[in-house]
Write a structure and sequence with these properties.
The chain has 315 residues and is of the alpha+beta class. Helices cover 28% and strands 25% of the residues.
Length: 315
Amino acid sequence: MIKFVNAKINIGLNIVGKREDGYHLLQTVFYPVGLYAGSPANPEQFCDIVELTAPGELVGNASEVAEHHLPEGLSGCISYYFSGNAVDCPLEKNLLVKGAESVLKWAAEKDSSVMEKMHGYHMRLDKHLPDGAGMGGGSADAVFAMRLLTDELAKRGLPSPDDDEMRRLAVGLGADCPVFVANRPAYAEGIGERLEIIPEVLKGKRLVVVKPDLHISTREAFSGVIPKRPVADLKDLILLPVEEWRDSIHNDFEDSLFPLYPELVRLKRALYQAGALYASLTGSGAALYGVFHSRECAEKCMLAVDAPYKTLLLL
């Protein structure tokens, strides 16, 4: 079984408070971009690929992490393989692995035979989405891996989590994860786990994503943010025409990161100069995006904007 994994952008991102445990409270709109599950029209364009294969089936074009070398704490019943962009992360800290293992652990608590019956499966990640972009690629990989395992468990008549349980498991992996369960545009509050599905306000538009040669850690991004309440409610602002977003919808990370990284300022300005209706940092960066009315305008932007990484997407 194979799933094609899309990313997300943030439309607006307000940091409104901080919990006692250190997690920040936010208001944002998560908007899936790239390929959606079940419609791989052009899988090499902007997606990761997650594949689950049964014991005895071949997994090609990947470097294996052998089962008997799995770090302590992992189930040992799945071998994990990686190809594409380098995945520079210890196996036990990889979000895809953590997501898959969380589903196996949940199922094994319901039926003690799960680990034995799922022994010998292989999971492969073919990585293409940009790292350190604030686009949730790792979070999406985790949830799509969870979905593959959930489908396989159900097919074999074993306990499998429903969507509500999937969201609960996803929250434990990270704030960007729960939105990929439904994989639809959603207004988010809390640490990102309280979701309300919204209309596809960008349907038919084009998106140009650009990324400088920067990696901004989540810790660094949050260190300069001062929580504050926005003047207007993002849930209302998102329903305005896109042309009106420029003066009303804001990403708070721009206030702290733009003074440190002038390249981000230059790229956002270049997107607007190229005709973007709206441009913003996505998440905590370092990717930015511009929204365009037509493919023609977006293609002109691709030629005009100088960035190490850039891609054009249909929304």
